[in-house]
Request: fold
Amino acid sequence: MNDRSGALPAADLLQLIWLASPALPVGGFSYSEGLEAAIEWAGLATEEAASDWLADQLRLCLARGDLAVLAQAVPAWRGGDMPRIRALNDWVFQTRESAEFLLQTEQMGRSFVEWLKLHHTDAATVFGDLPASHPIAFAFAASRTGATARDACLAFAFGWSENMAGAAVKAVPLGQSAGQRMLGRLAAEIPAAVDAALAFSDEDRQAFSPMLAVLSARHETQYSRLFRS
Reply:
């Protein structure tokens, strides 16, 4: 395992890049996490508006929820603490504020576990009857590398940012240069968001984003849509 002062070994770094890649067959590219509904009803018609929206979502939603879970799940997987893993997993499912958000983490978690079974011979046994959410499945994979919890959160957040910037390019719509500018902004803000997530206790962790929940629910009946959330 590396420490904060040492470089992550090349094999572990590449594994994290792989886990965060939108090419991983878990379906992340098919979700906009409320962005498509926000374009319709909250006026995200420009690069600036979409960029601000995603930066807020990173800080106020991802950092306080999934990243905080991931930060706690990596050491729990390493320690074989299945009661802790189940508690974190239950929290993810119980705090999804719309049907689409719940289906997203269920589907991505299920697909991630199926991918894990191809690369880790004990994955089927380890997960057993656990219907893993996406951050819990990701944490398992990251725990099998030399990555710290911070490394894992950085990779997860960048993968999320790539998917969301791609969703904005398609749905606003925007050009590829705008998408790269948005991704650059998110990348610059990820370290602070991750450090905040690492500091959250169970009492601090939360998934309260009422406006996003309303938009997600409206997306279920949106007339024309590209994404599943």
Q: What stands out?
A: The first helix runs from residue 10 to 20. DSSP finds eleven helices and no strands in the chain. Residues 46-219 form a domain with the Urease accessory protein UreF fold (CATH 1.10.4190.10). The mean pLDDT is 94.
